[in-house]
Amino acid sequence: MSGWGSWLKGDAAAGAAGGAPAASGSNFHAISDKVAQAALFGPLEASDLEWTCAGGFTTETQTWYSVLHDGSFATSQIIHSAVGLWYPQVQMTFKYFNPKTGKKIWKSVNVTKFAAQSDKRSSKAAEFSVNFSTTDAGDDKYTITANLDTDLQLSWSFTRPSAVKGWKLGSGPKGGFSYFGSNPDSPEGYVIHRFWPVAESEGHIISHGAAIDAKGTGMFVHAIQGMRPNLVAAKWNFANFQAQDDKLGRVSGVMMEFTTTPDYGSVEKEQQRQSLTVNIGSIVAEGKLISVTAATRTAGAAESQPSRKSNSYVKHLDKTLDQDTGYQAPQSIEYHWQGPLLDASSGKGDLQNTVEASLKVDLGKPYPSSETHGLVDKVDVLAEIPYMVRKLVNYVAGTKPYIYQTLNEATLKIKLPEAYGGDVKGETEVKGSLFEEHTFISG
């Protein structure tokens, strides 16, 4: 999951659930392998954005991101976590960072009386309300109001223009689901993401009585981890590029990638299980979704070996030891999208015409933090999770989940095929803002 929902992933102790599966046969079914490249776009149904509020070991999040017009960054998130408890833990978090002034706001509140509303897409707690609506123009909209403390109130909204379709990977009720376990019809767990690749924010953030204009460009993601928290993923990458370009208008590049733990994956050589990396993403240009991308890759594959089906990937470059975390963290990251041109009328991908995009961001040194370019936060995940969740989940020795968050100006290079129906074809560059997260859960 993106954002703060990441805190329940990775190598928690086997005490939370049983041991690792035997290395025989496939026990992970990646959505990026199951869906044909021509059928990657799955339109969002109303039910896709409904809160499930599932029990068992399930973590569900809704996250809204925006880069405001003054260059600052803001995000709201709701985290609904059951993790085997009788009563779920529900948090609302908010983060704001202004790179020009250095002003930072961070608030995490364990909310009370949380409930999904009658439409199941809206939600309410004693501390906040989130109302889902559709405007007369057909645009979907979330309106968020919250009183998170005496010094922090939120009154802002996120609107997805009807021309920019939301998506999941693959259509139908099983679209988007990656399944854990040998039998996908009776899985041990699952992971799913549903995206608005573009959303326009507006409203106000009230901090210490002063109003911050929340007008900006962003996105929204609804994610569910229906899985015991100890065996989902070893690491995650998330990219959220947003821009308004003179030639290509409203542009976005969104990517989500996770790598399974060695307990789940494919059996390759010598009956040893290999972790798999699942990469999904999308490209928006001229205010329209023009490509959905997906690729699967064996985590231990050589960099020269292409991913399956698509050459979409994330590469951590110039890695060096971060003494704060103990991880080999990148000094730059490269993202690459490759997918078929989306036919808006049919929803199918044109395999003869490919959209490609790439982006590279220089992050500087991970240590000390003052040398990291655009560092929003370096989050010690165990310090942030609710007390009852932390008490329940016994993390194994040496597992130290950390989330690196950065915000930088970046340039997205897009290559559009001749069949593209817009005014711009071939290669072009778009300048915008990149918010990214790279998360380490275990080794």
From TrEMBL:
One GO term (biological process): response to oxidative stress
The UniProt record lists the Svf1-like N-terminal domain at: 59-225
Residues in coiled coil? none
Q: Which InterPro entries match?
A: Ceramide-binding_SVF1 (IPR051385), Svf1-like_C (IPR033394), Svf1-like_N (IPR013931)
Enumerate the subcellular locations listed in this protein's record, separating them with semicolons.
Answer: Cytoplasm
Q: Which first-to-last residue range defines the signal peptide?
A: none
Keywords from UniProt, A to Z, are: Cytoplasm
What are the GO cellular component annotations? cytoplasm
Q: What is its main location?
A: cytoplasm
Annotated Svf1-like C-terminal domain ranges read 227-442
Q: Which Pfam families match?
A: Svf1 (PF08622), Svf1_C (PF17187)
| UniProt-listed PANTHER family | CERAMIDE-BINDING PROTEIN SVF1-RELATED (PTHR47107:SF1), SVF1-LIKE PROTEIN YDR222W-RELATED (PTHR47107)
Q: Which family does it belong to?
A: Belongs to the SVF1 family.
Return the protein name. Survival factor 1
Q: Give the species this sequence originates from.
A: Pseudozyma hubeiensis (strain SY62)
